[in-house]
Amino acid sequence: MTLLANLFAIFRKELQSYFLSPLAYVVGGLFWLLSGIVFVYLLLSPNGIIQEVAIGEQSGIPMPPVDVAYIFLLRYLGIIGSLTSFVVPLLSMGLYAEERKNGTLELLATSPLTNWVVALGKLLGVLMFYITLLIPMLILELVAFAAADPPVPPAVPLLAHLGLILLAAALLSLGMFLSSLTHSNIIAAILTFVVVLLLAIMDLVGRQLGQPFEGAIAQISLIKHYENYVQGIFDSSSLFVFASYIFLGIFLTAQSIEILRFQRS
């Protein structure tokens, strides 16, 4: 019970710090603005999905039925996944770097709390803040899907958004570890962005190389497994890959704090 109480205390403290941080509101505002622009563009612009379907119908050329809602979901969450990759470094950069700068990380390292509890509590706190950023997007999607014909099966968008949350959790976990290595928020953000960029490049290189390299890289590619969820494909191997990245970030963070604990002992 004490373990859960400590975990909840860390989680609550971390979540409150985001809601009290001006930078977090700036990041959230930019995220909402860009996601809203993408939403309107995909639906209502001259190059949007609805216009594409209308042009196809007016051409007089027989076309198979088009599931506009599903196509929109694929494109929209594909872009939001990329946008999340840019937002994550800004959210994770202060998880431990701020503690180092303020001298409170040493207090955490020498406290009775285990490194795993601290790392997991911090990760859950920032992940919950990210999930709150998704709420306005979900409202927009519900309004759009309400007019879809045929109706969108609830399992498809739910699975797609689960993939988005798992992607964010994996990247935030890695960003948390990198934040534990430095006193500077900026350096932590840059390091996390470099890792995110390397993961994206790895996926692109794999596709260019073809088989068997493409298949091997796809097994560890966060982007590929995220695309599976967005397409409505539930694959236990994808869940395992996300869980592995999350565990890796927590493990490395715990070891980083353990080294600091050892230095202070």
Give an overview of the whole structure.
The protein has 265 residues and is mostly helical. The protein has one domain. The protein contains twelve helices and no strands. Helix 4 packs antiparallel against helix 11. The longest helix is centred in the middle third of the chain and has 32 residues. About 2% of the residues have low confidence.
List keywords for this structure.
265 residues; mainly alpha
Q: What's the overall average pLDDT, rounded?
A: 81
Low-confidence stretches: 54-58
Largest sheet: none
- Secondary-structure element order, as H and E? HHHHHHHHHHHH
Structural class: mainly alpha
Which outline best applies?
A: globular
First-to-last CA distance: 28 Å
Number of helices: 12
Number of strands: 0
Instruction: Supply Rg.
Output: 21 Å
Number of domains: 1
Topology diagram in text:
Layout: H1 2-19, H2 22-44, H3 49-58, H4 68-92, H5 94-102, H6 105-109, H7 115-146, H8 155-179, H9 185-209, H10 213-218, H11 222-230, H12 236-264
Helix pairs in contact: 1-7, 2-4, 2-7, 4-8, 4-9, 4-11, 7-8, 7-12, 8-9, 8-11, 8-12, 11-12
